[in-house]
Amino acid sequence: MNMTSLLVQVLCGAAGGNIVGAVLKKFSLGPVGNSIAGIVGGGLGGQLLGMMSGGAASAAGGSMATNLLGGGLGGAVLMLLVGALRGMAKKPAA
Is residue 54 left, alpha or beta, with left meaning phi > 0 and alpha meaning psi from -120 to 50? Predict the structure, then answer.
C-alpha cells in the first residue's frame, strides 16, 4: 500500500462525506461526524476500487484518478449510510 494513495483517499473521503452532509442535511452527522465517516469510507472505498481495477497501476498504489474517485465515493456512501442508520435509530417505535 502506498501512503500517498491512502492519504489522497482519506482526504477525498472526508471531502465527500462533508459534501453529502451539506447537500443532504437530513443525513448529516455534523462536520466532525461527516469527516470521520468520510475518512473511514474513503480509505475503504479507495482500497476496494483499487483492487477491482487490477493491473500494474493497482500494484503500484493505483492511479490518482482511482484514488480520488474511490476515496470520494467511498466517503460519501459511508457517510450517507451512517446518517440513514442514525435517522432510523432516532425514530420512535410505532
Answer: left
Pull the grid cell for residue 50: 483499487
Integer Cα distance of 83 and 72 in angstroms: 16
Q: Is the pTM for the entire model greater than 0.70?
A: yes
The CA distance from 40 to 9, in Å, is 9
**Residue 28 pLDDT greater than 90, yes or no:** yes
Half-sphere exposure of 17 (CA within 13 A, CB side): 30
% of the chain with per-residue pLDDT over 90: 57
Residue type at position 19: I
CA distances from 14 to 80, 82, 92 (A): 12, 14, 30
CB contact burial 1-37 (16+ within 10 A = b; e otherwise): eeeebbebbbbbbbbbbbbbbeeeeebbbeeebbbbb
Asked if 89 and 33 touch (Cβ cutoff 8 Å), the reply is no
